[in-house]
């Protein structure tokens, strides 16, 4: 899995950080930061949940290895 996020469309909702804090954080302005673009298997369910929950669809997951 490869994780990317579009900071231009992120609306600082923080949902991804709550759902997958090992993988997402926010900068000083609140926009999403991807801490771990290739998360381990143990984090992937939370990352998928975070991507589904993002209100602006700003998180993209490439499931191909
Ligand atoms: S859930 Fe989406 S809009 Fe909210 S902080 Fe994360 S990337 Fe941004």
Automatic annotation (TrEMBL):
It comes from the Bacteria. Keywords: 3Fe-4S, Electron transport, Iron, Iron-sulfur, Metal-binding, Transport. Signal peptide: none annotated. This is Ferredoxin. The keyword Iron applies. One of its GO terms (molecular function) is iron ion binding. InterPro entries: 3Fe4S_ferredoxin, Fe-S_cluster_ET. The keyword Metal-binding applies. Residues 36-65 are annotated as: Disordered. It comes from Streptomyces auratus AGR0001. Ferredoxins are iron-sulfur proteins that transfer electrons in a wide variety of metabolic reactions. It holds the Pfam family Fer4_15. Its cofactor is [3Fe-4S] cluster.
């Amino acid at each position: 899995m490869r994780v990317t996020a579009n900071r231009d469309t992120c609306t600082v909702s923080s949902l991804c950080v709550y759902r997958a804090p090992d993988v997402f954080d926010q900068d000083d302005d609140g926009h999403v930061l991807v801490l771990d673009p290739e998360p381990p298997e143990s984090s992937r369910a939370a990352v998928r949940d975070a991507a589904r929950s993002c209100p602006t669809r700003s998180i993209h997951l490439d499931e191909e290895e």
